[in-house]
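User:
Care to share a sequence and structure tokens?

Assistant:
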Amino acid sequence: MADFVRNYIDDALLEFRRYKKLSDAAIAQLTAEELFRMPDEESNSVAIIMKHMAGNMISRWTDFLTSDGEKPDRHRDQEFIIDPANTSREELLAYWERGWKAVFNAIEPMTDGDFRKTVFIRGEAHSVMQAINRQIGHYAHHAGQIVFLAKHWKNRNWQTLSVPRGKSEEFNAKMSAKQKAS
């Protein structure tokens, strides 16, 4: 069981890091104006998504194994309001990093015994694995939104984060050659 838990933790961390890296690469391409731009009044900007994700991370992962993931001092509705005139890119990125730090600080030291515990999110009981999976799905959802918006705002100036359009065959050939060589 200990090997399974360690493998699961390592895989979960890999997934969280993958979504962070993807989001970070998309965010890095945006100007301050694009970061705060909303497609319409009912949509979120990349900045709002980042603020929401960081708020969620700090709430969910602080004292993850010992307190409800929805902390009383979290004000979720406020995460969807941001004033670009009073929020700098640097402040937003610092909050974003604080959220991710909470994720990694909670998961990295976990042990086999931690997976026998029950954790709560909004009073609902979850196994530790269920709670982690819930957050992986949540962050993947929002990472996709960040990439979509960034790609939309950059349009022709977008620097792809995966295989470039029209280059799949070339990419597959390179990967195949690389596998044969090793």
Notes: Residues 27 and 175 are 28 Å apart (CA to CA). The mean pLDDT is 94. The radius of gyration is 19 Å.
